Structures
1.
Amino acid sequence: MKVLVVDDDFDQLEIRALLLRKSGFEVFEAGGRLEAQRLAADHRPDCAVIDLNMPTSAEGLALIRDLKLINPEIHLIVLTGADTQVFETRGEAALVDEVVKKPAGSAQLIQKLKAYA
């Protein structure tokens, strides 16, 4: 399964991508919105794991909309350290399959992704 991982924190991006690869996923890494758009259009991932604040929540919310426009079938998992109840009031929440509160355990994230395989 193809997974797009998007995070503006390079260390978190690398760690998350490494763990997902070791779990058998084909992973594409993006450090920001424009790169994520390009990778989504070029590789058509099945799922995306998105940090909401990249560096602002407005960028993360825009990316959610962008990815659904590129591929309406993509599964979206949003990672956030912010209050998830605030995100759930946003219209973009209806486009997302899962919201995971940071710090998220790797096993939890992998389990959620495997459910979409």
2.
Amino acid sequence: MQTKKTVIIIDDDIKPSGEIKLFLEAKGFIVSNINDGSIALQIIKGVNPDIILLDIIMPKIDGFTLAKQIRYEENLKDIPIIIFSAQGEMKELFAMEGINDYIIKPVNNQQLLELINKRIG
């Protein structure tokens, strides 16, 4: 029996992240939404997800800083991170910081699913 893969979505914009959550749950994933980047690292440590979907522009702590924090944690550093943001021109910068993939908002759910499957099968 195959276990369900766990996805954490970190985005302060509740409506689009909620739509992504519903889409991924319908595809068989276990999905958690976090809308506050300042508490996300502690939640990620507790859940140890298979993949993280991360917005860049957030209050308190931005996604770029959070991604760097995740990469510094020994138990979390290998979890794939997919950035989703309206900031398309920053794609090369994220690649240098160990971000696995990048998708531009508004997110195409099918394209996102393909990126997730590429990373975690």
3.
Amino acid sequence: MPRSQNKVASHRRRKKLLARAKGYWGARSKVLTIAKHHVEKAGTHAYRHRRTKKREMRGLWVARINAGARQHGVSYSRLISGLTKKKVELNRKVLADLAAHHPQAFAEVVKFATS
């Protein structure tokens, strides 16, 4: 009896892989073996950069808080130290948003932390 091949499943698998490679340049989006390699590599980069993004965002928040604090004559480290001593549990994401979009509220936070 001849060997049975599941053509439907293998076709769907290849089609799904080529769909993930859509938009890639040249053979990277057309040839299965090349597309497979580049889709895998893209997944590796995506995984790594999802973690890097978190570090970069924290750095951005710190820069925004520092810029806002220095407008009020306080350094970033003194502001964070003051907030910690007063047991204010505002995270850096919220503080950065206040500094960038709500300067009056941020001024109140700085005043409370340094008093």
4.
Amino acid sequence: MGFSVLSCTLVIIAGTMVGIMFSLIALESKSIWNSGIVHAIWNIIIIGGGLTVNETKDKYSVIAYVLN
């Protein structure tokens, strides 16, 4: 897919940060269910196409963040 070392590093950092976010939600709410609900909403928005982050605008997404 043409990933560079920098791209792989950024994916690892972003994944770690999201994991920390979900862990903090579970710790603060004292329930894993709240973290699961946020994770489901996250998946619907990102994987379902509600939000895209890309180099080009996606005409099917509700919100698109275009990288320069």
